Amino acid sequence: MIYKMKTLNLFSFFFCFVIYYNNAQSDFLGLVSIDHGIAHYSYYDSDKRAPKLIKVDAQGGVIETYLKLDDGCIENYRFTWKFNKNVSKLVLGEEVLGTISGQRMSGSCYNNTAYITISGSNNGSTLLGNTRPAYGSLSAYASRAHAINRNNNNQSNPLSIEIKRSSVPDEGYFTIRIASTTDASNKDVFDYEIRYNYKKNFTQTNENRTVNCFGLYDFGVTIGMLEYGSLKNDKPSFLVGIIDNSIALAKGVGCIDTSYLESLKSRLSVASSSKLFYAEISSYRQRLPAEILSNCN
Length: 297
Hints:
Helix content is 30%, strand content 31%.
């Protein structure tokens, strides 16, 4: 057990060293902002509008909108995009994967649909009043995902994002675009763009967490104590106190998910024996290094 505690603590020290070394040595593209608004398409601009709902962050987003035809028929749509990792930081040689999806929520109008797509900086940005030129620094691709296709099905397609350079460029962006397709004579139209903007080695203290390495080491110590205490069948109330300390340390580190510890605390609080939890606490301790590497780097 002492060996296990030392192993986790040594990992904590090594992990912090790796973070420091990587931050000092490796260039990256850092997310500066996420802009969104009506997309520019000259003869439709006056008829465009914002979506009913928009939520967007570094993990993905969702837009809900509608299209109303001249005959009064209305279709409601929901579009989503999801990344397999937080895109606040893009590094050379890494491909971000994910999905874009379109869904018709209600309505069934003739000759009408809408779609979502993703493009890199090589395609240019068409945000109304804030366009940006095309240049090949950041590649993003996915086939269009329609809210409804010719087979009357919703669609979901894979996406990929990657720095297509031999070195990290000074800046870059990629765009998510949602647009309607209908009869050209119809007055209502929807065309909206979300743009993720990047700069080389850019960080934001309010968005990018700084790992507290002293707190990480102490967190490792408390998890070792928790595991050892359950092995000895210490009083559950005693281990609850250790969990409280562990949660406080985890929040101080800034990148450790505390949901398991909070669940364990609630169950231990009404338990008659702590030894019943030894196996799951040991399993938690064993998977912590991989979770820390994934969430804190």
